[in-house]
Design brief:
By secondary structure, this protein is of the alpha+beta class. It has a single domain, classed as STM4215-like. It has 2 helices and 6 strands. 26% of the residues are buried.
């Protein structure tokens, strides 16, 4: 069996395309931003967070858990303040539904690990982030995907 190479560009594009197609974001970036994002509406950023080998299937290759972060940014100063979280949660809901329904990211992965069978479940964490002197409300979605037969085991 020949192991595959990690198609990181294709996988990142697949995760980004769901965010772009949702209609919730002014901008969707393919990297964790080093500068403050736009402050008008919602912005999203997608990046790979970690790659972890999984227990062997008994074959001569290793599958991996690849976790993407999809962070949604919105101004913490938006008005009305009571609408900040509901607006962000509507975007979160749309993205989680998209990652659940496109379970293989168009056939690029074995699955999105929705329930965390391999250690990390699809999940969301909310918080605040100060960047370049601007306070943002953020919600970060962890999107764990399982990639089969990535690295060959050679004795």
């Amino acid at each position: 069996m020949t192991a595959m190479a990690l198609n990181i560009l294709g996988l990142t594009d697949a995760v980004i395309s769901h965010a772009s197609a949702s209609g919730y974001f002014e901008t969707v970036n393919g990297a964790e931003p080093k500068n403050a994002p736009a402050t008008g509406g919602l912005t999203a950023a997608v990046w790979a967070d970690r790659v972890t080998p999984l227990r062997s299937s008994g074959l001569n290759s290793v599958s991996v858990l690849l976790v993407f972060n999809v962070r949604i940014y919105g101004s913490a100063q938006s008005e009305p303040a009571d609408a900040i979280d509901p607006n962000m949660l509507a975007a979160v809901d749309a993205l989680c539904a998209a990652y659940s329904s496109d379970f293989t990211l168009g056939g690029l992965v074995r699955s999105v690990d929705l329930l965390g069978a391999n250690g990390t479940a699809l999940g969301v964490r909310a918080g605040y982030l100060s960047q370049d002197g601007v306070l943002y409300r953020v919600m970060t979605i962890s999107v764990p995907v399982i990639v089969n037969d990535l690295w060959e085991e050679v004795a």
